[in-house]
């Protein structure tokens, strides 16, 4: 194709990607907030509802709320609230706008770097339409995901322009966009390493040890920023209590779960079934047998990739992109109690999409009907993904639907039972709430959070004595649990008042 033809096809592809992505996700405009994180991030957060005041801006840049430092994300939520108030649809649609923008920028950046229109389009379409990415788009609290990826891709775009004509003026946008990305979500700390991968392919700047040294020096400002962001994030998460103690997840368990998760993300990419907003960490019950198999598979694939990387550089770039960008969230340092999360795949799977988009045409290079097979199979895959993503998105329409689906696709998930019990309690469905709270305790009888929630549910059901028993039980397991102690005091006061009223009425 000539240059004019390329331009027309690029415009058509951008339009097609935007329209199909909008068609799949537009339904989020009618969705509500989710009880998980959305209250703390948006609709119960007075700092967000403050509007664009100096006080709110100062809070955004200084707070460690939700165990993270991401001021730009907070500012985006503040702007949303000023525009849409408590109408969740507007917040959702902003997420969708960023997702569409990310899709188009990914396509344009890949095309500019490689000159390959259709491979770039297919990789961008996989990014846009894969069900694993629903969580990042359909969950208001994951604004940080789509926003940070927006600046990740803008950093790549600016970097390509810088490479074409290196200079300080063209380097400054790279630094700026990277800084904005880190202020949206610290997961971007791996981006300097990805830029090095792009130097290897498709930019072809990495051809000797000397060039490697120069490219590393070139990125020193980015590495410094990444290190600073990592330190700030670690401090914020430790203060927020999201970094789990060694007794809960020892080194062996964390490593085993990491290896298994690496394989699980690939499996879910190929066969995106049984997706849940929460996958419970197995802790010390992790299967070291499966971990060993997973580690062996990862090693085998890595050896094969480097075996063929000399003539197929995209293999090494895509595979190392995948492995490297998951490092901050794979669980080597355990943050939270999840084993993995769909949202962590939002940028990481791009590496595997690159391998697929460039690898399939090469694999079928000698086929007689290569173009027909590629076109037909690509359209079929995208059609299937579109349908799966459309239906997966519907699970995010409200909290109860989301939690009930999670219970269907996971087993013995005490955390989901807790979440559902709390939501049902707020909705006045007390009997159902008690059932799920009790089930969470049955699954994990030593879990203080589960016992405490059961106590709360019983308290609001008017079963004060039973609630007191549960709060005492929680405090026996963890005497330092402030919420259980507070709830116990409230329940005891209510019981005392009830007793007084009964005595007076006698």
Q: Any idea what the shape is?
A: elongated
Sheet of most strands: 2 strands, antiparallel
Number of strands: 2
The whole-number mean of residue pLDDT values reads: 93
Strand order of the largest sheet: 1-2
The helicity comes to over 70%
Using the CA coordinates, give the radius of gyration.
Answer: 25 Å
Question: Would you list the SSEs in sequence order as H and E?
Answer: HHHHHHHHHHHHHEHHEHHHHHHHH
Poorly predicted regions:
none
User: What is the end-to-end distance?
Assistant: 94 Å
Briefly note the structural class of the backbone: mainly alpha
Assembly context of the chains: single chain
Approximate strand percentage? under 5%
Q: Give the total of domains.
A: 2
Number of helices: 23
Structure, described:
This protein is 72% helix and 1% strand. The protein is mainly α and 506 residues long. Strands 1-2 form a two-stranded antiparallel sheet. α6 runs parallel beside α17 (370-394). The N and C termini lie far apart (94 Å).
Keywords:
2 domains, 1% strand, 23 helices, mainly alpha, 506 residues, two-stranded antiparallel ribbon, Serine Threonine Protein Phosphatase 5, Tetratricopeptide repeat
């Amino acid at each position: 194709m000539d240059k004019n033809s390329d331009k027309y096809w690029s415009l058509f592809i951008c339009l097609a990607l935007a329209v199909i992505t909008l068609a799949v996700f537009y339904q989020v405009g009618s969705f509500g907030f989710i009880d998980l994180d959305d209250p703390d991030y948006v609709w119960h957060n007075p700092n967000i509802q403050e509007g664009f005041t100096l006080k709110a801006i100062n809070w955004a840049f200084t707070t460690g709320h939700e165990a993270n430092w991401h001021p730009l994300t907070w500012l985006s939520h503040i702007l949303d609230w000023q525009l849409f108030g408590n109408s969740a649809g507007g917040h959702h649609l902003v997420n969708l706008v960023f997702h569409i923008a990310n899709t188009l920028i990914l396509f344009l950046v890949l095309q500019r770097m490689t000159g390959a229109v259709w491979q770039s389009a297919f990789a961008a379409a996989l990014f846009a339409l894969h069900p694993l990415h629903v969580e990042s788009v359909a969950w208001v609290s994951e604004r940080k995901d789509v926003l940070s990826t927006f600046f990740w891709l803008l950093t790549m775009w600016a970097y390509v322009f810088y490479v074409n004509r290196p200079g300080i003026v063209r380097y400054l946008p790279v630094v700026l966009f990277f800084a904005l990305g880190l202020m949206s979500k610290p997961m971007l700390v791996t981006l300097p390493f990805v830029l090095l991968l792009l130097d290897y392919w498709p930019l072809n700047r990495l051809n000797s040890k000397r060039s490697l040294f120069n490219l590393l020096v070139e990125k020193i400002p980015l590495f410094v920023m990444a290190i600073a962001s990592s330190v700030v994030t670690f401090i914020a998460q430790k203060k927020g209590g999201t970094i789990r103690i060694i007794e809960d997840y020892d080194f062996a368990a964390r490593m085993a779960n990491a290896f298994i998760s690496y394989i699980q993300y690939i499996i879910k990419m190929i066969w995106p079934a049984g997706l849940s907003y929460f996958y419970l960490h197995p802790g010390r019950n992790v299967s070291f047998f499966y971990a060993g198999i997973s580690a062996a598979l990862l090693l085998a694939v890595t050896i094969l990739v480097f075996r063929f990387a000399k003539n197929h550089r995209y293999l090494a770039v895509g595979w190392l992109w995948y492995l490297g960008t998951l490092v901050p969230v794979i669980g080597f340092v355990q943050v939270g109690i999840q084993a993995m999360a769909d949202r962590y795949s939002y940028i990481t799977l791009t590496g595997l999409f690159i391998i697929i988009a460039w690898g399939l045409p090469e694999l079928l290079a000698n086929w007689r009907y290569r173009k027909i097979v590629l076109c037909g199979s690509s359209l079929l895959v995208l059609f299937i993904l579109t349908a799966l993503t459309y239906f997966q998105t519907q699970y995010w329409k409200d909290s109860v639907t989301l939690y009930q689906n999670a219970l269907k696709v996971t087993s013995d998930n005490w955390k989901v039972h807790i979440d559902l019990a709390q939501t049902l309690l707020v909705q006045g469905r007390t009997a159902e709430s008690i059932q799920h709270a009790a089930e969470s305790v049955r699954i994990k009888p030593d879990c203080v959070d589960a016992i405490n929630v059961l106590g709360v549910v019983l308290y609001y059901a008017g079963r004060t004595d039973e609630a007191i028993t549960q709060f005492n039980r929680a405090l026996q397991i963890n005497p330092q649990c402030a919420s259980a102690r507070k709830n116990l005091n409230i329940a005891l006061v209510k019981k005392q008042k009830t007793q007084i009223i009964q005595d007076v009425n006698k």
